[in-house]
Amino acid sequence: xxxxxxxxxxxxxxxxxxxxxxxxxxxxxxxxxxxxxxxxxxxxxxxxxxxxxxxxxxxxxxxxxxxxxxxxxxxxxxxxxxxxxxxxxxxxxxxxxxxxxxxxxxxxxxxxxxxxxxxxxxxxxxxxxxxxxxxxxxxxxxxxxxxxxxxxxxxxxxxxxxxxxxxxxxxxxxxxxxxxxxxxxxxxxxxxxxxxxxxxxxxxxxxxxxxxxxxxxxxxxxxxxxxxxxxxxxxxxxxxxxxxxxxxxxxxxxxxxxxxxxxxxxxxxxxxxxxxxxxxxxxxxxxxxxxxxxxxxxxxxxxxxxxxxxxxxxxxxxxxxxxxxxxxxxxxxxxxxxxxxxxxxxxxxxxxxxxxxxxxxxxxxxxxxxxxxxxxxxxxxxxxxxxxxxxxxxxxxxxxxxxxxxxxxxxxxxxxxxxxxxxxxxxxxxx
Length: 431
What we know:
Layout: E1 3-8, E2 13-18, E3 42-47, E4 50-55, E5 61-65, E6 71-75, E7 79-83, E8 90-94, E9 103-105, E10 111-117, E11 120-125, E12 130-134, E13 144-147, E14 157-160, E15 163-170, E16 174-181, E17 189-193, E18 202-205, E19 208-214, E20 225-233, E21 240-241, E22 248-249, H1 250-254, E23 257-258, E24 263-267, E25 270-271, E26 278-279, E27 284-288, E28 294-298, E29 302-309, E30 312-317, E31 322-328, E32 331-336, E33 342-350, E34 353-360, E35 364-367, E36 373-376, E37 384-385, E38 393-397, E39 403-407, E40 414-416, E41 424-429
Antiparallel strand pairs: 1-2, 1-41, 3-4, 3-41, 4-5, 6-7, 7-8, 8-9, 10-11, 11-12, 12-13, 14-15, 15-16, 16-17, 18-19, 19-20, 20-21, 20-22, 23-24, 24-27, 25-26, 27-28, 29-30, 30-31, 31-32, 33-34, 34-35, 35-36, 37-38, 38-39, 39-40
């Protein structure tokens, strides 16, 4: 489904349901157009098991449904879509019909992964078929088959510039990454042997798509040197491997992420004592560009990174320190920011305005153009949402009884949006 954040203060847990774009578990990501400051947008939130939506200026609040326990909420403006744990189909609820009932859209299919792109819903079922249908269709009778050879063991896919990029089984046996026209027409483009294990390993920037491919995807126990970065034009063309002769270690890549121009990996990172999670107290942060050039960024593992200019990065390391780094003539120079306990950095773009927010364990800070910081008191990473399409930062304010608040993008004003405590933020959307 989608790269979606369920922000829950009651449970104290940030549930990242990465169902398509940042999607790791199984279903969706939606393409949106940039929203102007004056455009109406909404925050969907749950309070005492009731799903509400409130306009981002606080002028309009709507009660949608009671006893809501869905995940992966997405809005088309006409319908809400979500899923239940351990249920086969995708649930749908009309936003325009009074007292509408929740219905199971595609309910007789076992949906492993889905996403929205423009007016279409794309999904992968357990038979290895990828379909699309108009998301506002009355029923599922308008399905179009896009691909019939998807690998159900590596569920993630994405839709970019008119093509679906997905994990396939070549000749029904061999792992390959492939692409196909989004309407199912034309031939398959076979990109490279292997599989993309996580949705966040798809990365588009400018005119290219970058793919981090595991060339030995079925090895689940040992961390091998198996991760190769491939790039190709979004308009089509021959894929180019950046590091085919020097694959990254699986742990190093899994413990990494993208900035705009670079893939960050943490060399030397290890799993923890339980063998379950990566231990970021080991390792060092490196950058690799699409041509395979590697530069060391940090003496410690890098937890979070954002690119604020083509030659400028902001990152936080495993010690909780934050830095601004400048790249020039193949070298990196870094300057520390006066913060501690930094755990997350997010950069969003609303129109032409770029905003970078650094989250500590207790607050958030807007990074200003002169590298000074504006404090956003009470906006914690685990309970905050900031996205490209909707100006502002939306958060559950633990300093005010868990009410829903909005900070302006520059951090200078804040607005209370709910009339009571909020359990979690389900979605921030232009619809």
